[in-house]
Amino acid sequence: MSKIRLCQRILLLSLFFLSVVAPLVFVSHRLNLLTLLGRREFLEDLYRATYRGDTLKLNAVEQEGADGLEEPNQVVYTEKDFASTISYYSEKNNDFKESGIAGYRTTTLERNVSGFNPDKGQRQGAQQNELSFMAQGRNIHDSQRMSEKNIQVTNKKVQEIKDQVILAKAYLKIAPPSSNLRLRDLEQLTREMELAVGEATQDSDLSTSALQKMRHMEASLSKVYRAFPDCSAVGAKLHTMLRQAEEQVRSQRHQATYLVHLAARTAPKGLHCLSMRLTAEYFALRPEERKLPNENKIYHPDLYHYAVFSDNVLACAAVVNSTISTAKEQEKLVFHVLTKSLNLPAISMWFLINPPAKATVHILSIDNFEWSSKYNTYQENNSSYPRFTSELNYLHFYLPDIFPALNKIVLLDHDVVVQQDLSELWNINMKGNVIGAVGTCQEGKIPFYRIDMFINLSDPLIGKRFDANACTWAFGMNLFDLQQWRRHNLTAVYQNYVQMGLWNIGSLPLGWLTFYNKTELLDRQWHVLGLGYSSDVDRNEIEQASVIHYDGLRKPWLDIAMGRYKSYWTKFLNFDNIFLQQCNLQA
């Protein structure tokens, strides 16, 4: 009996031991397993924090019932979600694969860690995953070290970020109103990108966080791009945005054009100062001291006579100085500067204190022409364009009356620069024509004008007289045979067009009509145009031209002048002159 009781006690103790120890072993095993799994989850979070920087802040954590917390899902947008309502959350675990891997596939960093795929198939054990994450962490550091060695001074990434911001804003506008609240993360990321790029102009100016945000934005935009299966609605909104942008561009261009015209019509402060100071100096002189030298040469028919219509002191100085500096026979040059009586003292004083070497300068006031009473020389108008409002432009058509003793004269606009000797111009055979000019109909050249581009030839009184395809020519450097002009009585022809109401088309089209079939076309090298409005004038043509012309609104003495051409003009002015310095006029 004692043996039987002993066996029973041993059995009871064994059962008691199993009932106590077995749960402890089971609990210990579970704790070890949970420790390993927890370590894996920790390493995954650590990797993501290292890999994406601060993008964990932009992730939405999804809870799926009793399965516990899943991996953070990146805030991106799938095609299916966006087609109905844009969702912050992914419905499947492989959403992370699409946004986290496919979205970054194009970046250098992702190519270095392309083996990373946290949701690929079944998990192969905590230890294997731990080693995988550690290996990819080393790849990240290796990639960072390689990128630091290959830093170049470029702005490629800066431009990419700016493009991403623009594209993100477009998507935010395209998204339906019901999805605006769901796009707050994309909107927030866009603001962060704008702050990150700041005033950066080079890639080296960007911070590491900016580059990380750029990668995250790239992934987000990639998902959004794929979220538009129906492009019709997107196209309609893009067309609306395009129309709005075009309207803004038109408005800005209109405003810019207005401001350019305003600047062209406004006398710079320095030029006004110069005119006032010279006028004061002129009236401080005695009457006999106000006379310019060589008055006996003024109307000598055997000399080279140049007419310049201007109310601008510096412009006249540049024309006269450039012509003299390139002339082979300076003593044969006679300049007739025609201006209003208000500007005559200042221009006269300039040439009194800056005598033109051996050449002769003659200053005339257009207000003193006795013959002008028999002509309606000028029509007052309210046009905003200078060519319609300057009386000096219309006096070109009265050269035979202004210079009755001369047979030939060269007209130079005050916005030209002479670069070569012009004496050969006087030997050109005019073949019975009245005006010598450079044509403006050569294909591919600036400017390209035909007569029908400026004159309405549908009027039967005009259209039957002219060929719509007739070539036009340029004012600014023209040789006139005044004898032929008088013989054809072209001033009367001009007056007829004025009485027909054509004065409002401008002096240049009126010249095309008046001298129609009376024009001798000159070689283009004599006169190159476009320096006052075009940035595409060929540099070689400028260098080889006898005369260059700043036609257009952007005159070389204005602040709006084209910088690339301005030096051709300023080199003929002495900015060390005391009057220019006192008026703060600089090259």
From TrEMBL:
Gene3D superfamilies: Spore Coat Polysaccharide Biosynthesis Protein SpsA, Chain A
Keywords from the named record: Cell wall biogenesis/degradation, Glycosyltransferase, Golgi apparatus, Transferase
Top-level taxonomic group: Eukaryota
Molecular function, one GO term: polygalacturonate 4-alpha-galacturonosyltransferase activity
Chief place of localization: Golgi
Coiled coil: none
A Pfam family hit: Glyco_transf_8
GO CC annotations on file: Golgi membrane
Annotated compartments: Golgi apparatus membrane
First-level EC class: transferase
InterPro entries associated with the record: GAUT (IPR029993), Glyco_trans_8 (IPR002495), Nucleotide-diphossugar_trans (IPR029044)
Functional pathway: Glycan metabolism; pectin biosynthesis
UniProt membrane topology term: Single-pass type II membrane protein
Any GO BP: cell wall organization
EC number: 2.4.1.-
Similarity comment: family membership: Belongs to the glycosyltransferase 8 family.
UniProt xrefs under PANTHER family: GALACTURONOSYLTRANSFERASE 4-RELATED (PTHR32116), HEXOSYLTRANSFERASE (PTHR32116:SF111)
Name under which the protein is recorded: Hexosyltransferase
